[in-house]
């Protein structure tokens, strides 16, 4: 009779259901965490590494370096300012470009 009253009140069943629901909710987040880890190692981390290398390359630029821009323009650095570079693309022909658009130093 005591077990029937306790079952009718829902104490044991309710307590077990609440514990099981918490574990099920946690198990629903495991695939999301796994997907975030995959995105981090395959997309975010390599992109951050590439950006860091690009910043280091821009800091190392000096007058006389031959460079290639994002637009495909090849030239030699004639003048360096804080955020602007003057490129000599032909004898006597100089253009100014923004520093971040330099993609490669040509050797």
From TrEMBL:
The record's section on SMART domains has: YajC
Q: Say where the protein is mainly found.
A: membrane
Which domain of life does the UniProt lineage start with? Bacteria
Q: How does it sit in the membrane?
A: Single-pass membrane protein
Where in the cell?
A: Cell membrane
Pfam families from the xrefs? Answer: YajC
Recite the UniProt keywords alphabetically: Cell membrane, Membrane, Protein transport, Translocation, Transmembrane, Transmembrane helix, Transport
Provide the transmembrane region boundaries. 27-44
Show the InterPro entries listed in the entry. Answer: Preprotein_translocase_YajC
Q: Which NCBIfam families match?
A: yajC
Q: Tell me which PANTHER family the record gives.
A: SEC TRANSLOCON ACCESSORY COMPLEX SUBUNIT YAJC (PTHR33909)
Write out the similarity annotation: Belongs to the YajC family.
* Protein name, UniProt field: Sec translocon accessory complex subunit YajC
Organism of origin:
Trichlorobacter ammonificans
